[in-house]
Amino acid sequence: MDASSPLTIAIIGFIVGLIVGLGCYRLFSKSQREAASMRQKLLEREHQIAEMKSSVGSHLTGIYQRLGNIRDEANQLELQLKEDAAEWNIRDAAIQPSLDLSGINETTQQAQDDPAAPATPRDYADGKGGTLSEDFGLKSNEAATPQPPRY
Length: 151
Fold this sequence. Notes:
transmembrane helix
């Protein structure tokens, strides 16, 4: 068989054409371009997610450090408060006072005993059918309102 025979040239031409056709298909195909752009977008999004994770991690680390600093300062303030209380011979109860409700009852009794204080409105206070009483309009007065005649 001769190297320059028409059959050899046809086979080589066919193979070269096939290779060129596949290359052109890969380069100019719309689906291939879309797939490549999708891969590119996916890589970009993964990169953005990685950046966000690192920024959130650094943000949380900063918050933990600030909380630690606040706790340390609170502990120092408490220690200083205890030292000052010990220096001035003050009990711990005075440092952390409990809720005292005795003053509230005294002020309400003083307001009731004071004659110069304004009186509570009578239509609500006496509860005997005033317009602001809690049962105004709830009682039915069937005897007072006659029913219309029925035909």
